[in-house]
Amino acid sequence: MTLASVQADLAARAPDLHVMVTETSTATVQLAADVHGCAPGQIAKTLAIRVGEREFLLVTRGDARLSNQKAKAAFGGRPRMLGPDDVLRLTSHEVGGVCPFGLPAPLTIYCDVSLRIYDEVIPAGGSTHASVRLPLSRLLELCGGQWADACDVPDA
User: Fold this and answer.
1) What is the DSSP letter of 127?
2) What are the beta bridge partners of residue 81?
3) What is the C-alpha separation between 141 and 143, in angstroms, rounded?
4) Of 37, 48, 59, 116, which cross-links 82 as Cys (Cβ 3.0–4.6 Å)?
């Protein structure tokens, strides 16, 4: 159960944070934004990406889109989004609950610079009904502190 792996990971590395479990689904950016009463951009979505033989995660704002041009420059090759089976293998989380916590093995994680406009973000929590609200600085710390400029965002 990935919710349990996220809860255990946060209990060990960030005991002050807790996973919020909701009756309403948070499986999409819009659903999560509605549940949490925030802008879609404040939902921190986690993308599983392959460049060449490397697989890694990119946490970006909910309304951002992966830019092939920016990602190629940031990661040194053409990015390919992983399919649901590979996402599950890599993260142990099903699509709709993918987050950078509770992973089965160490993994490189980048935070996209598009998140920098928010002081607080809300990534999923390992389930389609779970989320974690935390300061952006804390997310960056828990993800390993690596920024990347790989996404385009809608005009404000």
Assistant:
1) S
2) 49
3) 5
4) 48
Average pLDDT, the chain: 96
Question: Which residue has 């590979």 as its token pair?
Answer: 86
Confidence of residue 156 (pLDDT cuts 50, 70, 90): low
pLDDT (average), residues 145-153: 97
Distances (CA, A) of 29 to 120, 140, 154: 15, 20, 14
List Cβ<8 Å contacts ≥24 apart for 135-139: 136/111, 138/14, 138/17, 139/44, 139/59, 139/100, 139/111, 139/115
Amino acid present at 22: T
Through-space distance between the first and last CA atoms of the chain, rounded to whole angstroms: 38
CB 13 within 8 A of CB 106: no
Helix (H) or strand (E) holding 70: helix 68-75
Reported for 102-107, long-range contacts at CB under 8 A and 24+ positions apart, including other chains, are 102/2, 102/4, 102/5, 102/6, 102/7, 102/8, 102/9, 102/10, 102/126, 103/5, 103/9, 104/5, 107/55, 107/56, 107/57
